[in-house]
Amino acid sequence: MITLRSILFNTTFYANLIIRMIVLSPIYFLMPRKAGYAIPKAWAKSSVWLMEKIVGTSFEIEGLENIPAGSYIFAPKHQSFWDTFALLPYLDDPVYILKRELMWIPLFGWYAKKQRMIPVDRSARGKVMFDVLKRTREELSTGRQLIIYPEGTRRPPGAEPVYKYGIARMYRDLGIPVVAVAMHPGLFWPRRTFRKYPGHFKVRILPPIPPGLDPDAFFTRLMEETEKASDELLVETIANNPHLPVPPTAAKRLAEIAKAKMAAAV
């Protein structure tokens, strides 16, 4: 049943994306930029709805009150394709720094260009990175929110965190709050497989880290606060969804958490 539902969801998910892009493109490209964001946000909502109805996966968000007004860095855990789009409707006017190759994809790249997403050559240094920072400042000056995945790439649930120091540099240079987000969509929409799993999970938006800290102190705080919340949600999510296949990384982390609790109780 999971296999059949996964095939049906994957088919409808991509059909929904392609059909919306083609049918709504004339409207989208005629709309003002920010108003046009309603179209990809509506697609995100419909995709979440499809996953709930077809696969049986739902979620809830804690901490929406922690989202500040104006510009900030939104820093979620990154485990799945799910977390690249599902939270878009909850942000006012987000901007991504993207691999430049993504901007070359027909339709998708055109949509991203209209929203003034910021392409970057990951192998570049020097002036190119200076230009990226300049573009980022320009977008944030209008009140937009920058989405950065602190670990850079998708990591399986429970995997040892590998945070990139680049977010500390952005925090220092931009001088805006950072809002960390803990969640485990990778248990339900794992990377590198077509299978999707039913269940329910939480997304936890943490209180913003204010600007002005020493970058090293910020970096340590970001990791500690995010991983603490991530561990709490991992234990809770697995306990509330006993049917889930637990990946080795999550099983290992659960054992480490249990061992630490036993040691603290002695």
Automatic annotation (TrEMBL):
Record keywords, A-Z: Acyltransferase, Membrane, Transferase, Transmembrane, Transmembrane helix
Domain Phospholipid/glycerol acyltransferase: 72-186
Pfam families xref list: Acyltransferase (PF01553)
EC annotation from Swiss-Prot or TrEMBL: 2.3.1.51
Domain of life, per lineage: Bacteria
EC supergroup of this enzyme: transferase
GO biological process: phosphatidic acid biosynthetic process
Pathway: Lipid metabolism
Listed GO MF terms: 1-acylglycerol-3-phosphate O-acyltransferase activity
Transmembrane stretches, start-end: 12-31
Record flagged with keyword Disulfide bond: no
Classification via PANTHER family: 1-ACYL-SN-GLYCEROL-3-PHOSPHATE ACYLTRANSFERASE
Protein name (record): 1-acyl-sn-glycerol-3-phosphate acyltransferase
Organism per entry: Rhizobium leucaenae
